[in-house]
Automatic annotation (TrEMBL):
Gene this protein is translated from: argS
Protein's recorded name: Arginine--tRNA ligase
Coiled coil (residue ranges): none
Entry's EC annotation: 6.1.1.19
GO CC annotations, alphabetized: cytoplasm
MF terms (GO), sorted A to Z: arginine-tRNA ligase activity; ATP binding
Enzyme class: ligase
Reaction catalysed by this enzyme: tRNA(Arg) + L-arginine + ATP = L-arginyl-tRNA(Arg) + AMP + diphosphate
InterPro entries reported for this sequence: Arg-tRNA-ligase, Arg-tRNA-synth_N, Arg-tRNA-synth_N_sf, ArgRS_core, DALR_anticod-bd, Rossmann-like_a/b/a_fold, tRNAsynth_Ia_anticodon-bd
Taxonomic path: Bacteria, Bacillati, Bacillota, Bacilli, Bacillales
């Protein structure tokens, strides 16, 4: 039996004419209180479709639902409460996870389908800051989750490598910068120049016109302007790569905004042909009043393109190139209107795949109460943030476990993990205030806590004389009826939820569902670990408990990987 819930849904559907198995599966709940069973079916939700009173449905099922994994059923106020046979339940969970190993929790729902994920997408010549970190981390988790469910994923880093900001930077560089300073100071120097430009432009607005003029030069292919641009891009990219390496994140494509420079003209023509563009004082825009939105500006007066123009062009290009079934864009919610507008434009152009575009918005990030803004230079650089987390973790390790091998490596895995996990906890739409103390707390609901729990499973297995990577107990030696105490059942109930949680995370585009799940599983395991001695003398009990530890190890490892965390074996 693959999954007891599927199995029970199937059995129930067979007893109810007119009910659909999928529907039953969705309705089956895990009651919060063990007295209400291991699974519960709210029959009033079926009452309308089946044209029968809920109590009658529950009574009928209670009398007829028999199976060797069901111990008993109760019909209570319109609910059918199902109590599983402890031994059979334990066996089904343990067998399944041990057989499937690293594949446990994966599915083939996405087979033959492609998802394009646009994430991270920092702006060149500006530093990579915490909002980009959040996009990187959420996008990467979605990439892993969709892949785990059988989708082909294409990860795109839509670099902000074109636009007026380069005009500003060129002006600032020519006035206040030097080649040596940029070489030495790299991205920090670029930021200094960018901030300086804004300070000076407040006093002298003519600088803004100069910046626009330089950008127009870039668009017209002026060699001097382009050479500077290329140089700034190179410097920024080298910096971004350091961060991606630290995070362990990769992309399939780095086609940024500049990639679409020669692809926009045909799109503009198409918009004109379709009578969507309207001239307004020399600029070209698309009216969206009918849809309750401000117009989408497609071409400026000076003929230069905009963020909208590039996004529409990129979407058309991606559809042609990757034939996606879904295209996802991960940015903070400040861009909600931007995405709504241009999704509408694609729709108005008559592309039926406009409905496959989805904006995955997330909340703002502040650090210990401080908000971030690039223009004023008030940015917390992500690299500094990550190194601070690594160094703090290193201090904790030094204090707790000074003799540990490869301390640096573990400090990196745990420090970076803490930051990633923190960004993925809680619904993505919620604003986050990053707190050092909370993120690095080994006992709180944090990445280090889950990683530490994983290392604990490894340590138990090592103590039992095994190697973390190979299965310790022979399957025939496991008598799952030994896993009937409250703590063991608590772990089993969490383990079996993994598949569903991963699927929900994919459907809701919400990696925090996996993050939450990992905390729940880790907590259940720690209750088991503290409540039951695992390496007991009784060989049958020992094998059964070790098999459960292995299942937790497998599941924690997969779950951590899905959200982009590494799983060190020793902490
Ligand atoms: N570079 C943009 C920013 O930092 C994010 C780009 C998101 N992707 C997109 N296709 N618009 O705000």
């Amino acid at each position: 039996m693959l999954n007891y819930k599927t199995h029970i849904a199937e059995k129930i559907a067979a007893l109810l004419t007119g009910a659909d198995e999928q529907e039953i599966f969705k309705l089956l709940e895990y009651p919060p209180n063990p007295e209400m069973g291991d699974l519960s079916l709210p029959c009033f939700r079926l009452s309308k479709a089946l044209k029968r009173p809920p109590q009658a449905i529950a009574d009928g099922l209670s009398q007829n639902l028999k199976d060797d994994i069901i111990d008993r059923t109760d019909s209570v106020s319109g609910y059918l409460n199902i109590f599983l046979s402890r031994g059979r339940f334990a066996e089904s969970v343990i067998t399944r996870i041990r057989n499937e190993g690293a594949k446990y929790g994966s599915q083939e729902i996405g087979k033959g389908k492609t998802v394009v994920i646009d994430y991270s997408s920092p702006n060149i010549a500006k530093p990579f800051h915490v909002a980009h970190l959040r996009s990187t981390v959420i996008g990467n988790a979605l990439y892993q989750i969709f892949s785990f469910l059988g989708y082909k994923c294409v990860g795109i880093n839509h670099l902000g490598d074109w636009g007026t900001q380069f005009g500003k930077l060129i002006v600032s560089y020519r006035l206040w910068g030097s080649a040596e300073e940029v070489q030495q100071g790299t991205i920090d120097e670029l930021l200094r120049l960018y901030v300086k430009f804004h300070e000076e432009a407040e006093k002298d607005p003519a600088l803004e016109d100069e910046a626009r003029a330089w950008f127009v030069k870039m668009e017209q292919g002026d060699e001097e302007a382009l050479a500077l641009w290329r140089w700034f891009v190179e410097i920024s990219m080298a910096e971004f790569q350091k961060i991606y390496r630290l995070l362990g994140v990769q992309f399939d494509s780095y086609a940024g905004e500049s990639f679409y420079n020669d692809k926009m003209e045909p799109v503009i023509q198409e918009l004109k042909q379709k009578n969507l563009l309207e001239e307004d004082e020399g600029a070209w825009l698309i009216r969206l009043d009918q849809y309750g939105m401000a117009p989408a500006l497609m071409l400026k007066k000076d003929g230069s393109s905009l963020y909208h123009t590039r996004d529409v062009t990129a979407a058309i290009y991606r559809k042609k190139t990757y034939h996606f079934d879904k295209a996802i864009y991960v940015t903070d919610y400040a861009q909600n209107l931007h995405f709504k507008q241009w999704f509408k434009v694609v729709d108005l152009m008559g592309y039926e795949w406009a409905g496959d575009l989805e904006h995955v918005a997330f909340g703002r990030v502040s650090i210990e109460g401080m908000s971030l803004s690039t223009r004023k230079g008030n940015v917390v650089k992500l690299e500094d943030l990550l190194y601070r987390a690594i160094n703090k973790t290193r201090e904790i390790i030094e204090a707790k476990n000074p003799n540990m091998e490869n301390k640096d490596e573990v400090a990196r895995q745990v420090g970076v993990g803490a930051v990633i996990f923190n960004d993925l906890s809680g619904n993505r739409i919620k604003d986050i205030d990053f707190s050092w103390e909370d993120a690095l707390n080994f006992e709180g609901e944090t990445g280090p806590y889950v990683q530490f729990t994983y290392a604990r499973t490894c340590s138990v297995i090592r103590k039992a004389g095994g190697d973390e990577r190979i299965s310790l107990v022979n399957h025939d030696d496991i008598d799952a009826s030994h896993l009937q105490n409250v703590e063991a059942v608590g772990v089993l109930k969490q383990l079996i939820l993994f598949t569903e949680r991963v699927e929900q995370a994919m459907q809701k585009l919400e990696p925090s569902i996996v993050t939450r799940y990992l905390i729940d599983l880790a907590q259940a395991f720690n209750r088991f670990y503290h409540g039951c001695h695992i390496l007991v003398d009784d060989p049958a009990l020992r094998s059964a408990r070790l098999a459960l530890v292995e299942c937790v190890q497998i599941t924690l490892q997969s779950g951590l990987r899905l959200i982009g965390l590494e799983a060190p074996e020793k902490i």
